[in-house]
Amino acid sequence: MQCLFYFLQILVLAIYHLTISELFLQLYFRFQLVLVQALVLLVALPVPLLPPLPPRVHAFVHACSSEEVIQLAGHTGWISLLLSSGIPVADQVVGACFREAAAVHADGPAFLLRVCKDLAGELAGDLPRLNAILRTVRS
């Protein structure tokens, strides 16, 4: 229960837009350690080259803007990378990405038709997996 209390306090600090230094200072004075485990797969960048350094360990994550979502989902070359990554929730991530992109796209149904056709081409030999992802897109 105490762990949940400190998590909620950290969440409140993030909501009040503290800097990362102020957040660490708060944690330091409470003598609390924060264990963060994340699996990150880089599938797209706004620039053509990788950055010189990876992000800081405790860097904040921000949601993409609508334009960034449309731009990422418009190029479906990353789908094969994600589907072959071995990440257990890769199929759900693909479905959720398509759903979110269709919600902000000017012509959502036409967009979904195009990307689902690309997905069908990618998973032509794995019909059960394709059907599961398409059900995720519909929900």
Q: What general outline do the C-alpha atoms trace?
A: elongated
Low-confidence stretches: 1-8
Radius of gyration: 19 Å
> How many E-type strands?
0
State the order of secondary-structure elements, H for helix, E for strand. Answer: HHHHHHH
Biggest sheet architecture: none
Distance between the termini: 34 Å
Helix content: 55-70%
What fraction of the residues are assigned to beta strands by DSSP?
under 5%
Mean pLDDT: 76
**Continuous helix count:** 7
- Structural class category: mainly alpha
Characterization of the model:
- This protein has about 140 residues and is mainly alpha-helical.
- The chain has a domain at about 65-139.
- Helices cover about 60% and strands about 0% of the residues.
- The protein is built from seven helices and no strands.
- α5 packs antiparallel against α6 and α5 crosses α7 (about 125-139).
- It is elongated.
- The chain starts with a helix and ends with a helix.
- Mean pLDDT is about 75; it is low at about 1-10.
Give me a quick take on this structure.
59% of the residues lie in helices and 0% in strands. The protein has 139 residues and is mostly helical.
Write the layout of secondary structure elements.
Blueprint: H1 2-15, H2 20-30, H3 66-74, H4 78-83, H5 90-104, H6 108-122, H7 127-138
